[in-house]
UniProtKB/TrEMBL annotation:
This is Beta-phosphoglucomutase. Mg(2+) binds at D7, D9, E167, D168. It comes from Capnocytophaga ochracea (strain ATCC 27872 / DSM 7271 / CCUG 9716 / JCM 12966 / NCTC 12371 / SS31 / VPI 2845) (Bacteroides ochraceus). The record marks S112, K143 as: Important for catalytic activity and assists the phosphoryl transfer reaction to Asp8 by balancing charge and orienting the reacting groups. One of its GO terms (molecular function) is magnesium ion binding. The keyword DNA repair does not apply. InterPro entries: B-phosphoglucomutase_hydrolase, Beta-PGM, HAD-like_sf, HAD-SF_hydro_IA, HAD_sf, PGP-like_dom2. Binds 2 magnesium ions per subunit. Substrate binds at residues 7-9, 23, 42-47, 50, 74, 112-116, 143.
Length: 207
């Protein structure tokens, strides 16, 4: 493989928990208790899609204006929590693996639904290691649509078949497969059955 494309939350950094806390706060406004099981279904998808899903679970509807305001409030809650993060949020083995890829002259991209991805990469100190960044501000279709990964491959100047994606969410795995890329799941093999292979973390990873 010539190019390696990474999702952000739950793959590179341990910031998925902050999304959960923010969404849990929003869900309470609708008298709905957002469980970890619910949250698993929100991983890898965009803010608006996630809010639509929570409203559906809660049996609530919002006007267009209130919907927009609620989505923005969720983002504000998330940003407040990540304002002081640092490299300690990187998941085990991530920094060493990224450095290994660079040492072997491999191209590295981010393919994330997060609209705050660049900020997170900057705060955790790994931004300089990336050759291309595609985030939620640059795509119009959420995973499982392959748009984010196809744009990441384009940003690297590589065909999809030369790229390997690392994902922790079923929607992301599906998106990578639809893009014609190899996909390595990071996390639970039972959840990520569609991945080509699954790893628990990046410790002792080889190219």
């Amino acid at each position: 493989m010539k190019g390696y494309i990474f999702d952000l939350d739950g793959v590179l950094v341990d910031t998925a928990k902050y999304h959960y806390i923010a969404w849990k706060t929003i869900a309470k406004e609708f008298n709905f208790e957002l469980t970890p099981q619910h949250n698993e279904q929100l991983k890898g998808i965009g803010r608006e899609v996630s809010l639509h899903q929570i409203l559906q679970w809660a049996g609530k509807t919002l006007s267009e204006t209130d919907f927009t305001d609620t989505a923005l409030r969720k983002n504000k809650l998330y940003l407040e929590q990540i304002s002081s993060i640092d490299s300690s949020e990187l998941l085990p083995g991530v920094l060493n693996f990224l450095q290994l890829l660079k040492a072997h002259h491999k191209k590295i991209a981010l393919g994330s639904a997060s609209r705050n991805a660049r900020l997170v990469l900057e705060r955790t100190g790994i931004l300089p290691l990336f050759d291309a960044i595609v985030d939620g501000t640059m795509v119009s279709k959420a995973k499982p649509d392959p748009e984010v990964f196809l744009k990441a491959a384009e940003g690297l100047g590589l065909p999809p078949a030369d790229c390997c994606v690392f994902e922790d969410a079923p929607a992301g795995v599906q998106a990578a497969k639809s893009a014609g890329m190899k996909v390595i799941g990071v996390g639970n093999p039972e959840v990520l059955k569609a991945a080509d292979t699954v790893i628990p973390n990046f410790l002792n990873m080889k190219i």
